[in-house]
Amino acid sequence: TMPKEPAVLRQNILDTTAAILACGIDPKKCVLFRQSLVPEHAELAWILGCLTNVPRLLRLPQWKMKRASQNSEGTVGLLTYPVLQAADILLYKSTRVPVGEDQVLHLELAQDIAQHFNKKYGEFFPVPRAILSEL
């Protein structure tokens, strides 16, 4: 949600990929891809954003904290980032999502959005559940 220098962004992508591989992810068993190259993420985020009300997003604690750190000038990207996260989850019809405690409310938003979409348009998205770990 913050502008980055293109060279820094490219290096961050490479560093993140190297870290994932160093953790033992086997690229023969898992698909690794750069999300920004898949336009359906942004397209679904737009659709879901049109179904999500602003007061719901304004109540998320992450919005309040980050907005405070930006001198009360939070960006639209910061506000709608949880909708993009929901699109990331729902696009692949995920049923279980590993999250930390700090992301539980964002997953609850994804659940709410999935339920709202399904009620309006028929059963399409599974309602994702959290996998919480003590680690």
TrEMBL record:
Gene3D superfamilies listed in its UniProt record: HUPs
EC number(s) given by UniProt: 6.1.1.2
GO biological process: mitochondrial tryptophanyl-tRNA aminoacylation
UniProt keyword list: Aminoacyl-tRNA synthetase, ATP-binding, Ligase, Nucleotide-binding, Protein biosynthesis
Pfam families: tRNA-synt_1b
GO cellular component: mitochondrial matrix
A GO MF label: ATP binding
Keyword ATP-binding assigned: yes
Family to which this protein belongs: Belongs to the class-I aminoacyl-tRNA synthetase family.
Full protein name: tryptophan--tRNA ligase
